[in-house]
Amino acid sequence: GQCQTALSNKRHLVSMQFHGVSGPAYLFSRVVNVVCSERRTSEMRTGRHIVRDAYCKKCQRYVGWMYEFAVSEDQAYKEGMFVLECFFIQHTPNNEISAQTNATPALPPLT
Predict the structure, then answer these.
(1) Torsions phi, psi of 61, nearest 5?
(2) Label partner for 41 (CA 20 to 30 A): which of 12, 20, 72, 73?
(3) Closest C-alpha to 82, from 98, 95, 64, 70
(4) 60 vs 111, residue with greater confidence
(5) Residues 59 and 51: beta-carbon distance below 8 Å
(6) pTM of the entire structure?
(7) Residue 63's pLDDT band (cuts 50, 70, 90)
(8) Beta partners for 40?
(9) If we measure between CA atoms, which residue out of 111, 106, 100, 84 comes closest to residue 9?
(10) 39/17 Cα distance (integer angstroms)
């Protein structure tokens, strides 16, 4: 089945040029209905970042991460933004981005 909990809207889409654990991912300026993990340091292609994994508030599935802090100044624009991995989300007819639960999570559910 599919969770279909609204996570964002296409008007909050900043970039489609991101990559996650599962492949293509999108950067959003605003995301709702998620809970975030504790902070962790992540070494990414663009340098070191402090991030929080993001999980759907309803189905508890991993959907992406939030950039809390970018060590490199040229990456600071990402701070406070969310990356949603395409494998874990779906587009609805009314331009909403929502969670889908038929995807196998890349990370264990947040408890």
Answers:
(1) -85, 145
(2) 12
(3) 64
(4) 60
(5) no
(6) 0.85
(7) very high
(8) 51
(9) 84
(10) 24
